[in-house]
Amino acid sequence: MDIMLNTMLICNGISILVRREVRHRVKQNSFTISYKTKVATSIPSIIAIIGMIIAILFHKVMED
Fold first, then answer.
1. Are 54 and 7 in contact (CB under 8 A)?
2. Number of structural domains, the chain?
3. Which structural domain range is residue 36 located in?
């Protein structure tokens, strides 16, 4: 259970940090939000979701 929670926290932490960095750069350069920045902001959330799925599967295997 601790491993699952840690994995989720790490994934969420990374996604928040990356999103903030991307938003900060977008504001600094003051260009319109392009396809690239949309992809860059969606990648961290995808990573977080994958991390959560892996953690849940790992937890179920450990229970059995």
1. yes
2. 1
3. 2-63
Alpha carbon distances (Å) from 39 to 5, 20, 33, 53, 62: 27, 14, 10, 21, 34
Per the rule left: phi > 0, alpha: psi between -120 and 50, beta: everything else, 30 is left
For the stretch 1-54, pLDDT in tens is 677 777 777 777 777 777 777 666 666 555 555 666 666 767 777 777 787 788
| Dihedral angle of Cα 8, 11, 15, 17, to the nearest 10 degrees | 100
**Predicted TM-score (pTM) of this structure:** 0.40
